[in-house]
Prior knowledge:
By secondary structure, this protein is an alpha+beta fold. The protein has one domain (2-401): Aspartate Aminotransferase, domain 2, CATH 3.40.640.10. The protein has helices at residues 2-15, 34-44, 52-65, 76-86, 103-111, 130-140, 172-181, 246-256, 280-290, 293-313, 339-351, 378-386, 396-402; strands at residues 69-73, 94-98, 115-119, 141-144, 147-150, 157-161, 187-189, 197-198, 201-204, 207-210, 214-215, 222-226, 239-243, 317-318, 325-326, 332-335, 357-358, 373-374, 387-390. The strands form six sheets. It has a four-stranded mixed β-sheet, with helices on both faces. It has a four-stranded parallel β-sheet with strand order 6-2-3-18. Helix 1 runs antiparallel to helix 10 (293-313), helix 2 runs antiparallel to helix 9 and helix 4 (76-86) crosses helix 5. It is globular and about 70 Å long. The structure holds pyridoxal-5'-phosphate. Residues 75-77, 101-102, 104-105, 163, 189, 191-192, 226, 228, 239 line the site of pyridoxal-5'-phosphate.
Amino acid sequence: xxxxxxxxxxxxxxxxxxxxxxxxxxxxxxxxxxxxxxxxxxxxxxxxxxxxxxxxxxxxxxxxxxxxxxxxxxxxxxxxxxxxxxxxxxxxxxxxxxxxxxxxxxxxxxxxxxxxxxxxxxxxxxxxxxxxxxxxxxxxxxxxxxxxxxxxxxxxxxxxxxxxxxxxxxxxxxxxxxxxxxxxxxxxxxxxxxxxxxxxxxxxxxxxxxxxxxxxxxxxxxxxxxxxxxxxxxxxxxxxxxxxxxxxxxxxxxxxxxxxxxxxxxxxxxxxxxxxxxxxxxxxxxxxxxxxxxxxxxxxxxxxxxxxxxxxxxxxxxxxxxxxxxxxxxxxxxxxxxxxxxxxxxxxxxxxxxxxxxxxxxxxxxxxxxxxxxxxxxxxxxxxxxxxxxxxxxxxxxxxxxx
Length: 403
Ligand SMILES: *Cc1c(COP(=O)(O)O)cnc(C)c1O
């Protein structure tokens, strides 16, 4: 087993051209206009949530993702919170999501006073399973006045939050199709998937066709991106809401800025709002990063393709993008034999200075959510026992090759 572990460590070290020393899981790269924009920002004195970089960052992300409007937030978690409020999640409602996700997804549901219901994921996408979702809905939902209620608890089901795990798009078109039948709005947790695209497949006269690739986060009613330090692109901290509905985007901006009514000097607020708008300083950093995104994505794809080939030679399963989707390969992942091998490899690789991490503990196992409703989670558990993330930073070596 040690030999196998050493071979994996060697592959990582070879790809990062780092025969020794520490290799992090995902470190940011600052190789563009970061310092210039930050200096400009400080010189302008507009360092807080009003300023040209904030507006520009929203416009550029909307353009990049192909959404009608984008609204910035302080981070991905409060962007998710706001998205849920905007689609109408209220206290005591239930929200469907996956157990295999980062804690922020479930926390945002809790901030609304709502309860998550955990559904299984698919093995190929690592994201919410449309089949499992549909069978859960068929078994547990009663529709009254066009609203879906959980038959067992009597609670309203007011949203569904699928997540694009490690940047790999889930089958979002199928999920939305199913949720539409039940009148359940979909909020896409696209926190990890900036630069990931999905193409909805259509069956026409017995043949399967793929549509044009569309950016993740633009399929649901609202999509959420994160710019945390470990994501594909960082603003230091930050989040973005993606909309195809300008009116909903206007409401979002209003709520993120303390619901203040526009007036030259009066302080009138017409709702309980939030102080969720990203500062100009962070937007300056984010904008400089965005200019380099296509290079980052190329470098990440080159690394993932190398990993894929190298692990194939070792007969180790590497998680690849699915047919009909284009992943940003935010965090690369391999699947080991079982939990025991996973644990031993984590111990071995981290001890060697190659940072590796297991997938998140399934959220239904955490103390705060142990009473939450969970469907059958066979695949989530199977993945949690085996999946390990391996170093995935953009390397300058790769970037030079792509210029
Ligand atoms: C990173 C992340 C978030 C939250 O983003 P922050 O900007 O760190 O608040 C939400 N959901 C998922 C799946 C994430 O990976």
